[in-house]
Target: protein-glutamine gamma-glutamyltransferase
Amino acid sequence: RVTGIDFLKRQNSQQHHTDAYNIKNLVVRRGQPFLVQVSLNRELRAADKLSLRFTIGENPMKNRGSLLSLKPEREDFNGWKISVVKKNGKEYLLSVTSSPNAPVGKYNLHVKTGANTYKPENGVIYLLFNPWCEDDAVYMANEAEKEEYVLNDTGSIYVGSAYSIYDRPWNFGQFEEFILDACMYLLDKSKLSLAERRDPAHVSRAMSALVNANDDNGVLLGNWSGNYISGTSPMDWIGSVMILQQYYKTKKPVRYGQCWVFAGVLNTVMRCLGVPCRCVSTFDSAHDTEENLTVDIYLNEKGEKLNSLSFDSVWNFHVWNDAWMKRTDMPNGFSGWQAIDSTPQEQSQGRFQCGPCPVKAVREGDVYLPYDAKFVYAEVNADRVYWVVKKVNGKDKYFKVGTETQAIGKNISTKAVGQNRREDITREYKYPEGSKEERMSMQRAYSFIRPSGLMPRSGYASTVRTLGGNTQPLVPKEPVTKTGLDIEITNTEPLHPGNPLEMAITVRISAPGTWTVNLTGSCQLQYYTGKVQANLGTIKETISLEGQSEMQVPLKIPPDAYMKTLSSVEDEVLILVTAIAEVKETNDKLTKETSMRFEYPPITVQMPETAKLYNDFNCAFIFKNKLNVTLENCKLLVEGLGIFKMTTFEQGDIMPGRIMKSEIICTPTRLGEKKIVAKLISNQIKGISTEKGIVIT
Model:
C-alpha cells in the first residue's frame, strides 16, 4: 500500500519555471521530467504491481488517451515515460516525463498497488505548454524572449495615435491567485477535444473566442457606447487580474472591455497556459466590413468627418495579440508569431474569434491561409479613400478628394524584450511601402480578395455611377499631383486640456508658377474607433503660393469650444484635424487627417529602489494639477503584483495648482523585479498613468 506522496513542489516548480504560480497544486510543463516521491508500507517485491494513473476530463478511458497508466518497468505509454530514479528502503523516487504534445489541462494522479488505489490530497496536477522543450510546438529558443513573453507578468500596451503614441502600463498577472484556475475553466468551457488541447493553434483560437462574451458567455463584455454606468469603464482597468478573478468567481461576463482590455486579458490567458504571447498595437487600423481593401471616409463641405455614412472605419489604434507556435496544419514557413484577436468585430466560422493567422502570411499576401488572414491583412493594408458629400439639386453627390495608400497599418508596436520601450514590428507584418516585395505581396493578396470596383459603400451609393469592371488597377498607386501638392498638420503649442488648442496646417507646392489653393480645415473630437464625438471648429481660406513654397495656416480652438464635451465623455478622446486642399489652376486635390492626444501632467511615484521580502516599505503617489482647469471626481487606482492588491483612492476635486499625495504601506511577498502601476481618472481626463519598478531581495 502507498502511505504517502510528496510532489516535491519546490524543486519541480523551479525546474519547470512555474514557481511563481500562486497555487497549492503542482504545476508542470509538458515534455519535461518531474519527480514524485512515493512512500510504501514495505519494500516492493518482484510480484508487486505499482502504477501511476493520470486522468483528465469527465470519464477517462485508455483508448481515448484520457487515462494514462504508467508502470516503472514499462517505460513508454502514449509518449509519457516513467522511471525509478532511486529507492531508499520504502521510499521510491520516480521521474515522470509527459509527452511534449500531451493535452494541456488538469490531471488527477492516483497510485495503484494491486487492488488498492491511493488518492493523495492536492492530487490534481496542472500540465502546461512548454516553450523550454524543443519538441513542444511552442518551443522558443531565446531565453530573454521566454523571460518576456511567458514569465513577465507586467507590460505596456501602446495606444494613442500614430502622431502621438504612448504606453499604457498593464498588469498581466498570470501567476496571481485563481488566474490559472480561471484559464482551466475557460479550457473546459471551450469544449475542445483532447486532441485539440494538444495544439496551441486550436487552444489560442478557442481563447480568442472566450475572452469576449459574445456567443459563449466569455470573460469580457465589449462596450463602445460611452455609457458604462452598469459596469466598469474600459478606461478604469489597469490589469487583467481583477477581471479574471471576478469572472472565475461569478462565471458571468465582466463589464466592460475595449480592444486593449481584450488584448491584455488574452495575453494573460496565453502566458498563463504557457504559450509565448505579446500585445500588438496597430495605428490607423482598418476595420473593413467587405474585404474590398478600401475604407471610405465621408466629409461634409466644411471638411468635417461624417459618422453616419460609413460602414467601415479606421481606428486610431487597435490592439490584438501575437502567439508563438509551430503551425503543423499548413505548409512550412508559416510558423512563429500568429495574430489572434479577441475583440469582437466579425464572426469567423460562426463565432466571434480571430486567428491564429501567421504574421508571415500577412506579409507575403498569402491571405487564403487559416485563420482569418484576409481580415488581418485588410486591417494593416487597406487604402483610405476620401469623399466629399455635396448637395446638388437637393440630392447628395459624392466627389472623390483623395486616396491614401500608405495610411493604414502604421507603427505596429509591442513592448521590447527585457526593456520598457516600444519596439516597432511593422516590418514583420509588411514589406517597406513601395518596395518590389510589397508590390508582389499585394498582387498575391489581391488575387485572393478580388476587390470590387472602387466606389463608396454607403446606403446612398446609388447616386454614383458605377466604375467600369476593369478600371481597378491591380495595385493602387499614390495619386501623383501635377503641382507636388502636400499638406502637413501639426500642433504649435502643447495640447493641455483647459488651454486653447493651437494647431497649424502647412500647405506646400513644389512646381514653379503661381498657384491658388483653396484650403478647408476642420477640428473634431473623436473616439479611438474613429467615431466623431464633437465638431469644434472649421476654417476656409484661399492662399496663393509662388513656385516652390509653403504657407502655414493657423487653426485655433478656444477652451470653451471643447471642455464641456471633454468633461461629459467617459472615454479618452483624441483631437482630429482634417484638411482638404484644392489647387484651382490644375484641379489637384489632396486630403490629410491627423489625430493628436491631449497632454497631461505626470504622476510621480516615490519609493525605495529596493526592498526586502516581507519587510514593509512606504510608497507615495504625488500629482500636481498644472492645468488651468479643476479636475473633478478624481480617483487614483494603484496595483503592485506581489506587493499589494488593487487599491482605489477617492481624491475629490483637484483645483489648478493643487498637489495631491496618497500613501500606501507595501509588503512584498515575491522576489525579483516588481512594478507598481498607478492611474488617475477624473471627469476631464481619463488617461494619466505611470509605473515604477522596485527590486525585492
